[in-house]
Amino acid sequence: MLGIVGVVDIRAVFEDLGLTGSAVAVPIASGHGVGLAENDLVTPASVMKVQVALAAEDAMVTGKIDGAQQRVLLPHARTPGPVGISLMRDEVRMSTRDLVSQMLTISDNVATDELIGLVGLDAINSMTVGIGLSHTLIASDLITMLDELAVEVGFADYATLAAHDPSVPGPPSTAELRDRLASAAALDPTRGSRTTAAETVRLLQAIWTDGVAHPDACASVRHAMRHQLTRNRIASGFGGEVATAAKSGGLMGIVRNEAGVVAFPDGQAYAVAVFTRRAPDVTTDPAAIDAGIGRIARILVDELRS
Questions:
Q1: What is the pTM of this model?
Q2: Who's near 130: CB < 8 A, 6+ residues apart?
Q3: Which residues fall within 8 angstroms of residue 266, CB to CB, at 6 or more apart?
Q4: pLDDT at position 6 over 70
Q5: How far does Cα 275 stand from its chain's mean position?
Q6: Crossing angle of helices 49-61/215-226, nearest 10°?
Q7: Beta strands across the sheet bearing 243-251
Q8: Residue range 253-258: average pLDDT?
Q9: CB 267 within 8 A of CB 210
Q10: Residue 4 has pLDDT above 60, yes or no
């Protein structure tokens, strides 16, 4: 349990930012964690790419798929996304193992869906169930999730939703669209992809102790997470002497999350997960939310180290 001071401090961060959320930290090696609402269901967004990476790396190590095989990613059949292959105009060829790096370092959506197609959702979800994560599930690949989300809020597909200009008169208004998005299945952890902060850190513990897949697969995931480009969430709560390996996630400006491991020079390491949710009428600056995630992570880890 989180101490009373820690509870007050974390709730104050969430409240100051106009957010709801959950958070937890646990020592990697052993011992009890500290958290707030850590067993509540949450929408993971791209944090779920850790599971995809682990299942893919394990399949490569065990010979189920060929890590060196070149995958051909055509321009007309790509999952939308703000970075990476989604923005490229020509045919891309990339090895399966390099898709994992692309997915974990810059959160590439095309790489993610290619890996999901290769490994299969059943295999990915079976892996997490196998270590007792009964509340963690990836409901679909990303393109399916985005298109279904768009249809649910009143558009033909995600491309049409992305092209919607709220400044042009006519329905839906910006407020209506925000409300519809917030209640869509993709952002409802009882209907879409889901996890909890507690199960997320249990997965990280298993990866860092080689307890969930082949040790070489776990090592590859740890290596890629150490090179994530996003450094302004959990890492922002700690000094430069603390090493951070993490995976961030966000969806439609409503959820903004990160999970990762912070390692101190004294050899102690802690798995941390912070999940935040913004109500449709809240307009908190995303940069402030990122900094808040860092502050919450620091409060949690300081409590453990005290």
A1: 0.95
A2: 212
A3: none
A4: no
A5: 9
A6: 140
A7: 34-36, 19-27, 269-278, 255-263, 243-251
A8: 97
A9: no
A10: no
Contact 221, 53 (CB under 8 A): yes
Give the position of tokens 């292959």. 85
* pLDDT tens sequence across 160-172: 999 998 888 778 8
Asked if residues 58 and 216 have their Cβ atoms less than 8 Å apart, the reply is: no
CB 143 within 8 A of CB 151: no
CB atoms within 10 A of CB 167: 5
In this structure, what are the phi and psi dihedrals at residue 140, rounded to the nearest 5 degrees? -165, 170
Q: How far apart are CA 57 and CA 217, in angstroms?
A: 5
Residue type, 115: L
- CA dist., res. 232 & res. 256, Å (int): 12
**3-state per-residue secondary structure call for the chain:** CCCHHHHHHHHHHHHHHCEEEEEEEEECCCCCCEEECCCCCECCHHHHHHHHHHHHHHHHHCCCCCCCCEEEECHHHCCCCCCHHHHCCCCEEEEHHHHHHHHHHHCCHHHHHHHHHHHCHHHHHHHHHHCCCCCCECCCCHHHHHHHHHHHCCCCCHHHHHHCCCCCCCCCCHHHHHHHHHCCHHHCCCCCCEECHHHHHHHHHHHHCCCCCCHHHHHHHHHHHHCCCCCCCHHHHCCCCCEEEEEEEEECCCEEEEEEEEECCCCCEEEEEEEEEECCCCCCCHHHHHHHHHHHHHHHHHHHHC
Strand partners, 90: none
Residue 190 zone, left/alpha/beta (φ > 0; ψ -120 to 50; rest):
alpha
Report the distance separating Cα 255 and Cα 42, nearest Å: 9
140/149 Cα distance (integer angstroms): 12
Distance, CA of 209 to CA of 46 (rounded, Å): 23
Both tokens assigned to 128: 């997490």
| pLDDT tops 80 at residue 2 | no
The confidence score (pLDDT) of residue 304 equals: 94
pLDDT for position 170: 74
